[in-house]
Amino acid sequence: MRIAVLGTGMVGQAIAGKLDELGHEVSVGTRDPGATTARTEPDGYGNPPLRDWLAARPRVRLATFADAAAGAELVVNATSGGASLEVLESAGAANLAGKVIVDIANPLDFSHGMPPTLFVKDTDSLAERIQRAFPESTVVKALNMVNATVMVDPASVGGGDHSTFISGDDVGAKQVVTGLLKSFGHTDIIDLGDISTARGSEMMLAIWLRLYAALGTPAFAFKIVR
Amino acid sequence: MRIAVLGTGMVGQAIAGKLDELGHEVSVGTRDPGATTARTEPDGYGNPPLRDWLAARPRVRLATFADAAAGAELVVNATSGGASLEVLESAGAANLAGKVIVDIANPLDFSHGMPPTLFVKDTDSLAERIQRAFPESTVVKALNMVNATVMVDPASVGGGDHSTFISGDDVGAKQVVTGLLKSFGHTDIIDLGDISTARGSEMMLAIWLRLYAALGTPAFAFKIVR
Fold it and tell me: Which of A110, B130, B145, B193 has the fewest Cβ atoms within 10 angstroms?
């Protein structure tokens, strides 16, 4: 499949790398490809510059948000939650129309210190905001409640014996995303229901952040035992 | 141990019944014991009248909130979240002073329809409100993210192979509650940290409610796979 991954951070790199490995035709979208590839220093989180990452993945194309989205059949929102709507606007509603947007972002608000809070929750969600802003696209919330490594390599914790969630209004779009998640190695994919159920998975960030602190590692996942 | 369980609903009955079965000296607190035992009809949820439940448990004592708390070494808040602070006020700060309050309630707000939202979240929690209101007591959040059956019979789902959380500022109080949870059959008890970490477990209600709807059963639990 031709897939655009919007966002070049740890999550974007993990998803784009995995999709490339699986044989998809991947474009990574960024605001300014020239500026992104000009960077030769690690970013603020200590991640190596994207040019090194791209050099190791010759099939992956770096493009503007709009170019990446225009050429894609499916778009992954791997930006930070606070930037997501603006980035998707840059990608352009016309370039996103008729396509599945897999929203794996979280509405984290770092302005009140650590741990972050959520800038939308309980009566609305980031996924719903995106769906309302892009009514011609079908948004599917997925993967947001585990870290980047667990997203693309579920077997790295507990041999993959844990659960993941999808939310969305469109059954066909959820089938496509379910197929992608299975190809990543996820085995227990629970369809929570319509896009409003993303309120549930986004609010899991509150427990995720406390577990990260208590366990001292982000290498964990949630299994729904029943 | 002498334990007061405040609240006579499904959760209160489950907890009080289990504690009685384990040999504790249990008082169940209610607003008006006379009115409670006078009821001969099932309640609004179809639960049998408390007089029948009490008749089957002759060692369990029904008392006012204040009497139950006064005679107890440990107090369980099994009321609905919206009533919790008022009920604990009725129990009386002096009767709660120096004691562990195990808070298993959730700040559910049913005023906006179903599923309920949370009337406090993210920057505060019900457990913190209780701790602030009763500074002479030590509050431990526990068990709120599973239903009453799973609380007291964890083996009823997945043979008990799942996780539960505690939050609280007092290490000794958390040790006492950990012991109780183990006696219920919980095996993976994760100490999230101070009482503010209850924001994490209370916000899990959002995913709990969606899973309840999606799975069609409340008989599930969360295992933290790591």
Answer: A110
